[in-house]
Amino acid sequence: MTANIEILSVGNELLIGKIPNTNAQWMAKRLTTLGLNVRRITTISDDIAEISNAVKEAITRQPAFLVTTGGLGPTFDDKTLEGIAKALNTSCEVNEEALRIVEEKYKTYAKERELEKIELTPARVKMAKIPKGAKPLPNTVGTAPGVTIKHDKTTIVALPGVPPEMKAIFEESLVPVLKKLAGDVTFFETSLGVSGLMESDLATIIDKVMHDNAYVYIKSHPRGQERTPHIELHLSTTAKDSTTAKNRVSRAIIQITDTIQAKGGKITRFKAKKQSNS
Amino acid sequence: MTANIEILSVGNELLIGKIPNTNAQWMAKRLTTLGLNVRRITTISDDIAEISNAVKEAITRQPAFLVTTGGLGPTFDDKTLEGIAKALNTSCEVNEEALRIVEEKYKTYAKERELEKIELTPARVKMAKIPKGAKPLPNTVGTAPGVTIKHDKTTIVALPGVPPEMKAIFEESLVPVLKKLAGDVTFFETSLGVSGLMESDLATIIDKVMHDNAYVYIKSHPRGQERTPHIELHLSTTAKDSTTAKNRVSRAIIQITDTIQAKGGKITRFKAKKQSNS
User: Which residues in chain B are closer than 8 Å to A220, comparing Cβ atoms?
Assistant: First the structure.
């Protein structure tokens, strides 16, 4: 039983389609590779009520982790921590450890700019205001610390939206904990290109092969049109060790390629790609 | 008061981070340009219970439209319509109009391939099985028709996940209705590059300018680090006509660039971009 994780992306820029949600994709891939199950990705606006509602809803589904991205910075529309606090019926206050982290950052920036000091304005202190009971996570790349707080069965982790900062805190503070949670599992995936059969022809073949190969998940992705079919078949599994994972997928590949060729289809491409728990 | 829309993306490939959610981004941008408000984007797996729960939750928020992408095809894991039916306490059945659409498609494909006929297998008929009370939307690019069904205050629209098919049905069947819903509104956005000021310095400037310019939304996106700051400022508004929208944003730009320069910041880039209701 793999642990469930939810991702909550906060940011108006995502809801107006200004940028693609590459943070969620990066994290989903990384979590899957670690052997965890990303159950839901939700994107909402920089609005305290929206954030609070989305956090409350996620908590009722009891994921092991709820990871948010975005909304930790110094500007008025960085509202993620207020939203989380509201969801947990608490409020934000200046956290001493977080304040020390932010202070140190501005001391360094002042030195780099050969200034005597950079004042700790309210906008800067804001980055140290976190929900009561939460802990800051060091940000080795940027300024605003990440934040973690446990509620019921869920550990909520708030990460910045700037990709290098999000990735740094994820790798440094989160991955060690996530590896323990996942245990010793491996995610293994391969993909095949198939031409000469329509996706509607492949449907029954996939059905049969998945039935015969428990634990192997096969999904077809049409790359051309049904009339000039070119299909990508994606096979994946999560197992206790990489030999088991590889064997499972290999058996499914042999069966599915045999059946496809017997029905007049062609295998146009084969890409094996192991992703281990690391 | 602009109408709320929710997007529901269905597909395991999104939750394992295999592909970025470009469908949601495209649609979010298109809806925003039409003058509508995308309130939430949710991504869930190819699982009937997950789809049904996500649809039920969305409906309670009463968006004008709930648009789903993915899961309409012929394979076993195309489960979106079953999930929608479950959420609405109904079931799927073969819809005569949808069946006619699918039949016509395979007649055309058979002709193109110089076959006497392509049999209507259960996998192919599956694409005509839609929730009771729903209507098919013609798919001029691919095979599976889109589907629409009204529930309470929300019109649910299910579109395929293959991008050219999704976009074709969106433009042909949805945009005319969405334009009426939005009325005569224009979305207008511009962005500025700012260097020489930290995001934490800009925070108070943005606050003041947004306070003085109701209806203009300003968001800062750090592009460098707080220590070597380069910030993108994104200004946007939705208004009844493009002159009003442009005037509003222009006034805000003048005030913000004046203040930034007075504080020692530099404007490095200016990109005006009008997006009208078309």
Answer: 73, 75
Q: Per the structure block, which two tokens stand in for B160?
A: 């395929």
Structure tokens, A193: 């290109």
Domain harbouring B137, CATH code: 3.40.980.10
Closest among B206, B211, B213, B205 to B249, alpha carbons compared: B213
Complex confidence, ipTM? 0.89
Residue B137 to residues A64, B161, B173: CA-CA distances in angstroms?
40, 15, 7
Domain with A252 in it:
186-275
Domain count, chain A: 2
The per-residue pLDDT for B216 is 92
Interface check for A215 against chain B (CB to CB < 8 A): the answer is no
Task: Say yes or no to pLDDT of B230 above 50.
Answer: yes
To test the contact with chain B by mutation, choose from A75, A197, A233 the residue with the greatest count of B C-beta atoms within 10 A, namely A75
Contacts from B17-20 at CB under 8 Å and sequence distance 24+?
A: B17/A24, B17/A25, B17/A26, B17/A27, B17/A28, B17/A29, B17/A30, B17/A31, B17/A32, B17/A38, B18/A29, B18/A234, B19/A25, B20/A20, B20/A21, B20/A22, B20/A25
CATH number of the domain where residue A221 is located: 3.30.70.600
Lowest-pLDDT range of A159-168, B145-154, B204-213 = B204-213
A227 vs B73: CB contact, 8 Å cut-off?
Answer: no
Q: Determine, for residues A39 and B50 on separate chains, whether the beta-carbon distance falls below 8 Å.
A: yes
CA distance A218 to chain B (A): 9
- The residue in chain B having the minimum alpha-carbon distance to the alpha carbon of residue A160 is B222
- Which of A13, A21, A39 has its CB closest to that of B234? A13
Alpha-carbon distance A182 to nearest alpha carbon in chain B (angstroms): 15
Q: What is the reported pTM?
A: 0.89
Residues of B in contact with A222 (CB under 8 A): 73, 142, 162
Whether residue A16 is found in the same domain as residue A139: yes
Q: Are residues B9 and B41 in the same domain?
A: yes
Whether chain A has a CB inside 8 Å of the CB on B121: the answer is yes
Q: Which of residues 38-77 of B touch A (CB under 8 A)?
A: 38-46, 50, 54, 57, 73-77
| Residue numbers in B near A20 (CB within 8 A) | 20-22, 25
pLDDT tens, residue by residue, B58-106: 999 999 999 999 999 999 899 999 999 999 999 999 999 999 999 999 9
- Tell me the mean pLDDT in the region B19-39: 95
Mean pLDDT of chain B: 92
- pLDDT exceeds 60 at position B147: yes
Instruction: Write the pLDDT tens digit of every residue in B114-136.
Output: 999 999 999 999 999 999 999 99
Q: What's the confidence (pLDDT) of residue A278?
A: 42
Asked whether residue A43 falls in the same domain as residue A64, the answer is yes
Provide, as residue numbers in chain B, all residues whose Cβ is less than 8 Å from the Cβ of A27.
Answer: 17
Q: Which residues of chain A have pLDDT under 70?
A: 1, 225-227, 271-278
Other Cβ atoms within 10 Å of A26 Cβ, number: 17
State the amino acid at position B275 in one-letter form: Q
